[in-house]
Please model this.
Amino acid sequence: QKEVEQNSGPLSVPEGAIASLNCTYSDRGSQSFFWYRQYSGKSPELIMFIYSNGDKEDGRFTAQLNKASQYVSLLIRDSQPSDSATYLCAVSNTGKLIFGQGTTLQVKP
Amino acid sequence: DTGVSQNPRHKITKRGQNVTFRCDPISEHNRLYWYRQTLGQGPEFLTYFQNEAQLEKSRLLSDRFSAERPKGSFSTLEIQRTEQGDSAMYLCASSSPGGIPTKFFGPGTRLTVL
Model:
């Protein structure tokens, strides 16, 4: 079992819709959770991070944690074509990040 | 704040050659991380430093890989006797001290082993 699992996609949504991205993690001791966006050929860019004590909203982005199910989600409201990218979920326990393989999101105009 | 920088940005080498990459973190960041990313995969942890001390090294990292951060500032990652399987993007990230575990990535070094 991989430590962090994501559906590789692609996830396709129309412009203006809500995109829902998910990942599961295996280490119950994980304390912080990250979502990165990565455009093709570029390095990952941090979008949001949350601690194990709660959800977080930042503009069009909402990160949610379900500790009982060991499940993290990222919601993107009013999706734009510029949101088309690979979204990487990562978890941290001892300082280093463990990444999932990423989900490719396609937002169609 | 100039961000994390990495050099070179691209490196093409022949199998069996040694290569060295450099990472300059954000100046006040005391933690520095190396990751490797292959096509279609997420970044894979290699090693990390707190100041000049190497705190953790991935068990997946063979003895051909070595990293240093001699003065707690920039870091180098050396790969000896490169193999075609070493072809990947090598990413460096840095993190500030204190409670925010944010990791800022550099632009990466793309290694191609022929």
Notes: Chain A touches chain B at residues 4, 6, 8, 32, 34, 42-46, 49, 88, 90, 92, 94-102 (CB under 8 Å).
